[in-house]
User: Fold these one by one.
Assistant:
Number 1:
Amino acid sequence: MRKLLTAPVKMPLTDSENQNYQTILKHAQELSLNLMAIKVENRPEDFLSWCEEFYRLCSQELNLELLEPTQFTPLKKMQDTLTNAISAAQIKMLRVAPWPVFVSYIKDKADLHALDERLKLVAHCKALQTQSLSEMIDEDLTALIGKHTAKHDTSIYDFDCEWFGSAKTSKVFIQLWQAQPSQFETAINCIPLEGEVSHADYTNFVSAYQAIFAENDLGAAPLIPATRLLAMRRPDQFVALTNAKIDLFSQGLSVAKFNNKDFDGYWRDLILTIRSFAWYKQALPADEFEQSIADAKAILIDVFLFADEQTAKNSNYLKLKNKPSKSSTTSGKRSRRSRESVQVLVDKALAADDMPQYLLDKRDSIVAEVQNGKSIDQVISLLRSIFG
């Protein structure tokens, strides 16, 4: 273990990597006796592999029963630093990866990052571009900004709406989003649906977006919700951010760190940097899968962030799908959707090619049951068992 801990000293670390390494060492000192009891067989020679191996040892080989209560805090801090270091090192790969390597990496990490769900979310939001925001049901409006709720019926929303990031913590943004959809639509429409988005397109969007907050005397407009809107509009051109991702992308790409108000920094330091990379410029899809990656190549740099076996399992879609039916009530009351939303969702479900006529004839009955709180899957499954 001592040789493993000191191995990075001989590695060519960047300033941010060395800072992460020193932080890891600091917390490791408080766990030294416990760490020395771990049998080490693998001693990687590069920093990314070192972080991955050390994280594995601390997560799987460390005897937690022997830890003192006060040692769990430094352990958690050390693991958090390791995951951040892994993310930054993996993002660093984006600077040199050609298109085949970019695609191969995403394919290898598909299960850990719930790639299937992510691509379904992207496809769903792309399909919404034929509607105006004022015409959308609440479920689609919240899906666009990354807010997953119990109203997102799993038969339609077979993905977590919060992949890539969420605007749900930005209360002021959400209030405006719900109250003034037409103004946000004006801003979003500044971004073309095809071709490369120009700086002029982006600045027009930013001006319209910032004006919504200024006109309501709500101070400076937040960048993070705007990146979610941009990335859902053009996932091949924009990256959806969170506060944590700003720091990790800045480290991994070696660009200046910007903040949640810096729209110029987002464009200059992140978007233009990504556009300079080989995988971005030389994307040559060879099949349908690669085309789906190319259509979302910017937003999918999220797949280069750290993920473990729990990441995909924490999907809000899976939590809702696997939730016991008796738990779908709160204080004895079912969550009721608007009739308009229910009708739209039921019609989407009934549009499936394999839907039998007897279910189509029961459309109004299905709407009524779903409006009372049952899921579409529950109602259709029940009717299939009775009439099928």
Note: Residues 72-92 form the longest helix (21 residues).
Number 2:
Amino acid sequence: MHPMPTEHLDVLIVGAGLSGIGAGCHLRAESPGKSFAILEGRERSGGTWDLFRYPGIRSDSDMFTLGYAFKPWEEAKAIADGPSILRYIRDTARDHGVEERIRYGHRVVRAEWSSPESRWTVEAVRADSGETVRLTCSFLFGCTGYYRYDEGYTPAFAGTERFGGEIVHPQHWPEQLDYAGKRVVVIGSGATAVTLLPAMAEHAAHVTMLQRSPSYVLSLPARDPIADVVRRVLPAKAAYPLVRWKNVLLSTLVFQLSRRTPNFVKKVIRKGVQKQLPPGYDVDTHFAPRYDPWDQRLCLVPDGDLFKAIRRGDASIVTDGIETFTERGIRLASGAELEADVIVTATGLNLLLLGGMSIAVDGRDVDLSTTVGYKGMMFSGVPNLAVTIGYTNASWTLKGDLVAEYVCRLVNHMDEHAYTQVTPLAPDPSLPTEPFIDLKSGYVLRSIEQLPKQGPRAPWRLHQNYARDVAMMKYGSLEDDAIAFSQAPAVAAPAAPLAA
């Protein structure tokens, strides 16, 4: 009996979320002759937007930049709810012929590169049978995001076993959780916490956001008034890029001002917060972080819904430490006790690059933390591999579109020149390196040692600047001193199989 031949693909995409679907659409349009498939570990597409089901889940970027460049966002709200975003992703996959390329329940666990063969051998475990499936591909494209899907981050709080109510993490929201008329405490101060507070306050008796330290909170209209005008007077194909660039430039301006004149931006944000809260509210305790703007992500609240809930008295914020959980709630470092029926630990994520798969190059395991990122999407010494990691200071998809377009340019360029291998080269080891992600958020700092590094200048530097990246990734040269293209030696013909 002859062994079954291993299936080979030109490009293998890992992950069927926002990035993976976008990558598939770009390949269909820009590299139409390439065979590809998308392996998805879960049973449904959508990634983040399918996994998270907590009340009020929404984008923390406007949809004109979180939407794909090639598919205009047509709904009214610029800050959209999770189900609308999920529908948009799935509609895109269906309309662009990508849905049929997805293989669900295939969790990729390992990828091994062979230079003589110029190909990856990829192992995936099937969810239905536990069977290991092997495929080969010429180019591996990781679109898994950068956090762990099966487990959110929860600190070790003392006394949790004593609490008589329910404790839930937003990443694992119980479908049947009933909090109507109940007292809810949300632990955290990031984007998830500021989303949960007004959403749960609509039905709960009262919601308290308990934070160890505040975040910067910025109110934006749920509908973009300029976008509404532009879309009324121009066709969608003309209006969408205009609005997209308007929002890109605005967010870039806020980021650059935050880095160059942090005290000015602090004052502007504080004034905006103070205007929306009741007279005499202690803004400096609850809304004045110890860090500068954009050292961590800004929290966006559409139409000031967080502040409206506080003004109505449906919600409140407590800034204090946690001493222990009690039978009835949480005892604070100050000695006060917060009574609760439900406690939500909106305490963050665990980072996990490439979905946790292991990587080997020519028989040697690769520790990605020892590599240096090339153009924010490839790693030194690792051939024919790209990953999508979105911006920290802007929409994820802005970078996702650029990376997907770059990969298409790259594989087309390799075909044109008969290259079979492309490998970023490590920069001079005497040059200084820095963490790959420059945020000071807890979820980043907890995992910083696991991530690749970045160098002092391009192409090893992440500038977190969309306009610069457009010039470099969309129009810049594919060949430079930091990357090597090569042809594999001819592979010997396989021996004839033994007779059965």
Note: The radius of gyration is 24 Å.
